[in-house]
Amino acid sequence: MNVIALILLGSVVVVPAVALWSLHWASRTGEFRLLNRAALLPFDDEEPVGQATDQILNRGGDRR
Amino acid sequence: MSSTNTLKALMPGDVQSDPARRAMLAEIDASCRVPVLFFVVSGLMWLLLGTLLALVASIKLHNPEFLAAWEWLTFGRVRPAHLNTVIYGFASQTGIGVTLWLMCRLCRVPFPAPGLTTVAALFWNLGLTIGVVGILVGDSTAIEWLELPRYSTPILFFSYALVAVWSVITFRLRRERHLYVSQWYLLAALLWFPWLYATAQIMLLIEPVRGVVQASVNWWFAHNVLGLWFTPIGLGAIYYFIPKVVGRPIHSYYLSVLGFWSLALFYNWNGLHHLIGGPMPAWMITVSVVASVMMLIPVITVAINHHFTMVGHFGKLRHSPTLRFIVFGAMAYTLTSLQGVANSLRSYSEIVHFTHHTVAHAHLGVYGFFTMVMFGSLYYIVPRITQREWPSLALISVHFWGCALGLILYVVPLSYGGILQGLGMNDASIPFLKVVEGTLPWLRIRTGAGLLLALGHVAFVVNLGWLLCRVFGPYRKPVVELFTETGTAAVTAK
Fold it and tell me: Which of residues 10-39 of A touch B (CB under 8 A)?
């Protein structure tokens, strides 16, 4: 039963503690501010905003 | 100033214009080639095996004499073998492969410690092979979602630990300090899975608990594998690929953060709604039902966010295989989640519990959502890490329509048939055998749907194999140039 007690302790204490620490870390490092900046992280000079990618099907068809 | 320029002005400095501080995308992609392909190709081999096992199991449901002469192909072994090959063989490995690539791209670092993940992939496949053979020879644990024999699971756990170590290294080495929402989802999944897997293994197999606690832990694990392992990986991929393909940031980053934290808060409590009607303390079931209904918050925020990101860009579905699969997966996520909320209600569960409706629901989630998102992600990732285009656009279409139509044909009739089955079982005036016979048409349709899914899988594997053969052929132009529709970009930028 000792192992079970350790697991329960881990589930009740460690996991919520990690979650709270993550929230604190995120708040401290500005993850919840500058949201517009974060939204742009998938983009850069090579694949900038406004540039569609992966347009490989029907390339000779639709020319709107 | 145009809207695009305004957005560019907001772009992080080190991301926007300091190439010395960030690796080039091509360098990152090339560094991911071997480790990501190892996981992905292994995963697809398991998918083919899992599909074959699924077809055998499905045929046996309406034709029990099929392959009945071999004990290792009896339904009780084939069905868990199918489940474990697709969950731990295909879905987990493909999910890890996609996660590795996304982490490198978003952390802006070339793949660190590739040997670590290569060893992890080797051991993962070794452990799974031992486990699946063990199930087929009769060593299944008979605990749903944890059927792999006890002698195989430590190998899987060791392998997973290596992946977790890799993710910590990558996170520490990141050159972009700010985290994108996809990273939140991926890092959370990498944290949650070992907690779930270790807890369930210890409490059910190593130091087994007894009675209702056993059932509680079983369904806590089984439901959370979907919600805290596959769902965050799938949503993390969607949050990356929809903006990338349409060339537009996510509609509301605020909503994406709200969706992540509400998923983290509510999902963990959901699993016990599978035990409605069982000999459980009522308050435990009630807590689970309440948490299941609260899941409407992350589901609706995610659905709104994805939909409004796509608004004005639905035409791109005709041109992008990635977008087709991902949008299909995103829609399936919304549907399966809403269906899951309904299934968790006691009044509805009275009808659909223990019926094929639950099977349809599980496939809508694991296949319609997660698998389709993984397929879409691979259509984006593989050409970039191999520097080769997909050889056959026709095979891409066969893959998409085979899987999409196959899934619809699987889920819709089986859901309806499951409701009829449940209503029949609740009516004491109807003999049980008559209810069972009533399910036969739906089960035959299910086998037909499985054949369509199998067709899609074969088309994808052939296309991928063809592409990989070309890796050893002559060099071609970088795929980023090939895959950029400059005309579309110009129109959008205006």
Answer: 10-11, 15, 18-19, 23, 26, 29-32, 34-39
